[in-house]
Amino acid sequence: MNDRPTHRIAVIPGDGIGTEVVPAAQRVLDRAGKLFGFRFAWTEFDWSCERYTRTGAMMPGDALDRLREHDQVFLGAVGYPGVPDHVSLWGLLIPIRRTFQQYINLRPVKLLRGITSPLRGVEPGAVDFVAVRENNEGEYSEIGGRLYTGTPQELAIQEAVFTRHGVSRVLRYAFALARGRQGRLTSATKSNGIIHTMPFWDQLVGEVSAEYPEVTTAQYHIDALAALFVLDPGRFDVVVGSNLFGDILTDLGAAVVGSIGIAPSANLNPEGEFPSMFEPVHGSAPDIAGQGIANPIGQIWSGSMMIDQLGHPGAGAAVLAAVEDVLGSSDVRTPDLGGKANTAQVADAVIDALGDHQPR
Ligand SMILES: NC(=O)c1ccc[n+]([C@@H]2O[C@H](COP(=O)([O-])OP(=O)(O)OC[C@H]3O[C@@H](n4cnc5c(N)ncnc54)[C@H](O)[C@@H]3O)[C@@H](O)[C@H]2O)c1
Predict the structure, then answer these.
(1) In the predicted model, is pLDDT for residue 3 greater than 80?
(2) What is the rounded average pLDDT of the residues 17-23?
(3) Beta strands 144-147 and 155-158: pairing type?
(4) Which amino acids bring their CB within 6 angstroms of ligand 1?
């Protein structure tokens, strides 16, 4: 099997439980590669808040050049008490997402077999949609500033950036995704209160929708949409939103389908010109770090999305099916899901279950 294709993956475990769930997920992915005929060459980087406290930088000056040599990036989580969150975000995550034009943040919101939703009467299979968040511009911008600091006149201004190029490309991605699914797209807006950028977003939704006549479009203000995520999450197929709206909605989506410890995400450069980056939705969870009880499923599911992107969709689907087998047919689960298993035991169970999903 020496001729198995090899995928070069940059691994950034990061901080806290990132350093626990990443190795667990790597074991699952290595097993999937063995069953489906490919392999990973992992290169690990210690870029993290821990490194920041030692050196004053989350990552070295040539970090992006080093990542560029890899096919994809597999990230755990960054952030730790004592290091302000904007340092970890702007010192690592955002430079990677922006330099590599990872303008799609893709987050499946699916209620897996064996998971109980906090919502009454919502059964597995009833919630299965994909959230597409704009990931490079929007409300998360460096443009702005503060004046008269420390005086009664103190003020802060934060500019949002919405470009025709940036908005149209995320909308095209979302419409194309909907076309390949059930053909329903929901757009998050707030054009009643935010009177420049959001009407522009809505206008572009209208323009791009004309290119996808087979997709039906619905549009909701973000507040009403958040309520619908709770009241009727089964109605959605593909939901698209700006950077901030997508960020908030997807944490809500993760909560609706069980636990933040399960939710996966992909930061995609769809053209493949740069590496994409795969990471769970959760953070470094300092409250449980070091105990070996973090749920590895968000990291494993993110890994299954990475395998899909590397061109092995059968293997990606098999990893997710193995996760569902473990959750649906056994009591092996971490404490956040009411179980007693540790991180490694969950990964071991998924590896065992993968055997039932190997190619025939
Ligand atoms: N992409 C990222 O790297 C990322 C994302 C979110 C937060 N963060 C950072 O992580 C740090 C902690 O943030 P937070 O507490 O708001 O969010 P968090 O996601 O780390 O934790 C929120 C809660 O969920 C629990 N939890 C999260 N992941 C879990 C898992 N895999 N298994 C079991 N329980 C899990 C935690 O124990 C905690 O109670 C902060 O520094 C924040 O900036 C980083």
Answers:
(1) no
(2) 98
(3) antiparallel
(4) 17, 21, 77-80, 85, 88, 93, 260-261, 279, 282-288, 294-295, 298, 334, 336
Phi/psi of residue 105, each to 5°? -110, 115
Predicted confidence (pLDDT) per residue in 113-142, tens digit: 999 899 998 888 899 999 999 999 999 998
Structure tokens at 286: 């300092």
pLDDT at 69: 95
Measured over the CA atoms of residue 298, residue 139, residue 267 and residue 86, the dihedral's sign is: negative
Q: Number of C-alpha atoms within 13 angstroms, CB side, residue 245?
A: 27
By CB atoms closer than 10 A (0-12, 13-18, 19+), residue 333 is buried
Pairing of β 276-280 and β 264-268: antiparallel
List Cβ neighbours of 64 (8 Å cut-off, separation of 6 or more): 95, 96, 99, 100
What pLDDT, on a 0 to 100 scale, did the predictor assign at position 197? 97
Ligand 1 atom having least distance to the Cα of 14: 3
Beta carbons of 261 and 295 less than 8 angstroms apart: yes
